[in-house]
Specification:
about 425 residues; alpha/beta; 3 domains; 13 helices; Glutaredoxin
Amino acid sequence: MKLTRPKIQLFIIWALRILVGATFIYSGFSKIIDPWGFIYKIQDYLNAWDLSIASTIKVTCAIGLSSAEFCLGAMLLLGAYRRIVPWVLGATMMFMLPLTFYILIENPVEDCGCFGDLLIISNSATFIKNIILTVAIIFLITKNRRASSLIIPAFQWIPLAASIAFCLGIGFIGYRYQPLLDFRQYPVGSTLLFEEEKDETEPEFSYIYEKEGIRQYFPVDSLPDDTWTFVDRLQTGKELQIDEQARSFALYDKYGDDVTNETISSDGLQMLVLIPNAKTIGYSRSYFIRTLNNAMNIIGGKLSIIVAGDENGSWRENAGTGLETFTADDTVIKEIARGEISLVLLRNGIIQWKTAATPLPSDYFDEIDPNINPLTSIPLNNVRWLLSLSIIYVAIIIDIILLPWIIKQIFTRKNKKKDVTLHPSSQTH
């Protein structure tokens, strides 16, 4: 088949549709499935610029912007709204390109948050990505209408509405309960315990030397000549072989002592009540915490309260729970579970499930049947919910794409029936 100029141009248009559309879909999905992560990133920017806005505005921006990214990418990929979508994408990049250039120069945050916690890239890589996207979008602004759409124009609103509903659905669940996909460093099944593995052998070391701006590691039996400059020595033996993920999780008592190993139980059930910012909770949930503690005692477990943002110990002293409260770094708390107050169930130090406590009423644990574990009905089945929503969404998109073919088949069958009715004699010969 001879490649003509129109065919080459058509290929380029579809290639750019796929490139730009998939990027925006990926970017929007990575943030909408974890709206709390995007909210935290927005707060990082606000802190860097010494600004403050209402929490409702941050939530609206996080869910709205993420949904817009996903929907724009989906519409571009489907060829829907061929004129307006490239222009909206262009307007978006007119804002994002200077912003990412500023972030590259000033470095107010180390990660721009373009792909949430699903994919962390450097600020320089982000800026280069946006340059490529901008060039591609400029081309699509001028040429996108020359390629056909996968959808009948009269029905373009259906995949748009389905995309919005899909985003709002997973965004609501992620904000209200927990993200349907947990790609952070403390997913279900990970441990909060660590043990330092020691042996009695001599420690091993690796040596860092530098030459002409290049640093390189050398083992002790293969050190470089004197043209290299010694920089540092690192221990590499078994004494450093510890669970660094678990070690980043540290709990402190009211005296400031690390009590992680003494607090996290290696045997049995344990409920962690995580509060990343004590200032946003106040004392209103103390009754809920006390009844939860009673429930844990009935089923043979223990409860531990972990708070951040309580430097003066006021929440610890005045919450009225009557329970020992520990402090931890707010970043680590946010990594483990999302929400203003969240619950994490451990068994032998291993995370079984996690959920935000906000949807649970204060009297949820008032009456406990010793024969029934009330904790089993709390967490959502994330896999089932994500699969269900995804299958419904994809099914709608496929049906809309196949709609022209379905209509054609219907009319073809009707025409055949008309021919048989009008010319019965021709069917007998």
